[in-house]
Amino acid sequence: MIVERLNAAQVRAHAQELADLLVETVHSGASVGFLAPLDGPEALAWWRGRARGVAAGELAVWAAREGTRVAGTVSLAFADKPNSRHRAELVKLMVRREARGRGLGHALLDTAERAAVASGVTLLHLDTETDSPAERLYRAAGWTPLGAIPDYAASPAGVLRPTTVYYKQVGAPALTG
Questions:
Q1: What is the rounded distance in angstroms from the CA atom of residue 116 to the CA atom of residue 125?
Q2: CA–CA distance from 30 to each of 40, 57, 71, 149, 151 (Å)?
Q3: What is the pTM of this model?
Q4: 3-state secondary structure of 73
Q5: What domains are defined for the chain?
Q6: Alpha carbons 141 and 138: distance in angstroms, whole number
Q7: pLDDT mean values, one per 10 residues, the chain (177 residues)
Q8: 31 has which bridge partners?
Q9: Omega before 37 within 30 of 0, i.e. cis
Q10: Which helix (H) or strand (E) holds 157?
Q11: What angle do CA 24, 90, 78 make, to 5 degrees?
């Protein structure tokens, strides 16, 4: 397995594979911000739109490959305000169904966490559907649950579900004086 950070041109070049992964993820019931049925053109347009954020330095995207196929992805969304540049949001961690259970989710998390530290980020946060399989991954990787918000987001089936917010301190805070 190879995990690589994608630049804007690479996000555009791999947009179809990333879109296919997004469609599969939504159709498998994972709550990643989209409702089912998600069609390919909508997912492709969404991924192509991410290239702008990557080019602007607002978003970092990694893709994991098993052979020639994208098997997973994760992104970091960087804060844009001066008082919050020490933090980032972990978003859109997705792993193909057939690649699950082999450590790919942990590898993607570890990659994003190390990159966050290298870029000066000391605090990460995320939200995920309460009682989802993703919660086991985040807890095993040392993320701390903050609490659940009832009826926060709709599942792919359109049912309102609670969301648990997590955080993880990944580096030493910078001292100001």
A1: 11
A2: 16, 27, 16, 17, 16
A3: 0.94
A4: strand
A5: 2-122 (3.40.630.30)
A6: 5
A7: 96 98 96 95 98 98 94 97 95 96 96 97 98 96 98 96 98 66
A8: none
A9: yes
A10: none
A11: 125
